[in-house]
Amino acid sequence: MDAQSYLKMFRTVKIASAATVDADGNPQSRIINVMLCEPEGLYIVTSRGKPFYRQLAETGKIALSAMAPDCQSLKLSGRVRKVEQKWVDRVFEQNPGMNEVYPGESRYALDAFLIYEGSGEWFDLLHYPIRRETFSFGGAPEEHCGFEITGGCTGCGA
To answer: Which of 1, 20, 35, 64 has its CA 20 to 30 Å from the CA of residue 26?
Structure first.
């Protein structure tokens, strides 16, 4: 599959664990909603008063992980930037339930962020043989994790 297919999978799942690093270098994690999947990347929103907002703005980095539809692991590490306010309105158009949480003008307590570059992995342990696929987008290099058994394997167990 291409990278866009994996990004769409994040949007289909919607709920992901998002990790950042705080000012002291400590990892921080929380559950977020992936609000939009567009050709340029994934859009998320958060309130300006939250530590999550501050961490995104200060580091420009994020990591996401989610359980894909058929119990496969889906992860992404990437770069993020704040985008124009019009994206908050677009998020509300595509996610009408947000109007109940943030009615009227209260939606503007949120800012939108675009995950515009990154690399990730889809990993399926439920089927044999195990499948692992990597992807990247926005100019990020594709990262290959783990090991690969090639035709040169002699079966020694190493």
So the answer is: 35
Task: Average the pLDDT over 95-121 and give the result.
Answer: 96
Residues 118, 44 contacting (CB under 8 angstroms):
no
pLDDT band per the 50, 70, 90 thresholds, residue 143: confident
Q: For 3-137, which CATH superfamily applies?
A: Electron Transport, Fmn-binding Protein; Chain A (2.30.110.10)
- Between CA 43 and CA 31 the distance in angstroms is 15
Question: pLDDT-based confidence at 145, cuts 50/70/90?
Answer: low
Beta-bridge mates of residue 28: 20
Q: Residue 129 — pLDDT band, cuts 50, 70, 90?
A: confident
Instruction: Identify which of 63, 96, 90, 95 has the alpha carbon closest to the alpha carbon of residue 79.
Output: 63
Question: Taking Cα atoms as reference points, which of 61, 18, 16, 10 lies closest to residue 36?
Answer: 10
Q: Report the amino acid identity of residue 95.
A: N
Q: What residues pair up with 32 in beta bridges, in sequence order?
A: 16
Give the side-chain half-sphere CA count within 13 A for 93. Answer: 6
